[in-house]
Description:
Layout: E1 7-12, H1 18-30, E2 34-39, H2 41-46, H3 49-56, H4 74-80, E3 84-90, H5 92-100, H6 106-113, E4 118-122, H7 126-130, H8 132-143, E5 147-148, E6 152-155, E7 161-165, H9 169-178, E8 189-194, E9 199-200, E10 206-207, H10 214-225, E11 229-234, E12 246-249, H11 253-263, E13 269-272, E14 279-281, E15 302-304, H12 308-313, E16 320-326, H13 331-342, E17 346-350, E18 360-367, E19 370-378, H14 379-393
Parallel strand pairs: 1-2, 1-3, 3-4, 4-5, 8-11, 8-13, 11-12, 13-16, 16-17
Antiparallel strand pairs: 6-7, 9-10, 14-15, 17-18, 18-19
Helix pairs in contact: 1-3, 1-9, 4-6, 5-8, 10-14
The protein binds cytidine-5'-monophosphate.
Amino acid sequence: MDLQGKHIVLAVTGGVAAYKAAELARLLVKAGATVQVVLTAAGARFVGAATFQALTGRPVFDDLWDTRVGNGMAHIELTRAADLVVVAPATADVLGKAAHGIADDLLSTLLLASNKPVLFAPAMNREMWGHPATRRNVAQLQDDGALISGPAAGEQACGEVGEGRMVEPDDLLQDIVAAFQPKVLSGRTVLVTAGPTFEAIDPVRGLTNRSSGKMGYAVARAAREAGARVVLVSGPTALPAPHGVQRLEVTSAQEMFDTVMAQVGSAQVFVATAAVADWRPLQVHAQKQKKQDGGAAPTLALQPNPDILATVAALPAPPFCVGFAAESENLAEHAAAKRLRKKVPLLVGNLGPDTFGRDDNQLELFDADGHRPLGRGDKLMLARKLVAEIAVRLTPSGR
Ligand code: C5P
């Protein structure tokens, strides 16, 4: 329940993406928020007030002269009660009005009267989005402190292909949740490894492990919520990339190593959550190895993989490095020793491998001062705590 106790004004303007706003309203309610929908006249042409009322359990406001508000000032009352105003979809028209302070209907007046953060999710034809007037308006709104989510690129309702689609409701929800997180990593680049690696034996077989990637993906999402640019180097997982994170997909440990080394120069933080295979087959067969009837089982000769974390930590000017240690016993002893061996300032211990694949976890932090629990719970909640711990340890310049 990421939005428990939050009150969101969801303003829906006149674009075909208004149908996605209905799904967004449902997701916001599911995440624990109370949602007050404001509909423009053009928005109501696409989706009716009854749909939003049913989804949010609250009557919709669509008129500046609404008499339901005691003092007759719906534009003021609605934003005072809100924690965040979300305009989704935001047409070129509403962006233009908001950028210029025009107030000629309930929504535009509410935006001018608002003393709350406002997040716009633009949606329009790609030429309209690329038009210098829209570019100026968006730049002005950002200058004024507004948050802009998207737009995404792809197929448009008009049949054209390009940038201007409203961000999908699931992704928009992530941006809305992020709007409430402190921006403790703003201006930083965070490099994260996640998931298992897969070491090929032949074209159909390989060595891998049970890592789901969930902890690393949660760290990537939490770092992005904290305002960082995030590069996620991921082994094979079934997880969708967190919104706004650059995901680079790899298979083997060697590929993960090469990709990390190519990216690490721009990172101020490196978080190694991946369960990297320690060994790979000495020989990768080009053809599937055949089973011989009655023949002996083959012997698999292995060679060590490079240690990505230790290599990054040993660079002349390394980023702030965070390692993970999954231990099945004597966590404190093994994790503290591992931190020294890998020469990293911070190591996160968890009592694995039972935590693999689960949504919750129990973590312990190890640093030069000793160790203490980070807590137990949802992996995203723990990842946010870890991000806060990393942020306080960074020097102002980052490296
Ligand atoms: O040595 P061990 O695998 O127990 O260390 C775990 C930590 O080191 C994790 O942070 C893991 O991502 C990282 N690691 C790595 N490259 C390896 C092995 C582990 O980055 N080859």
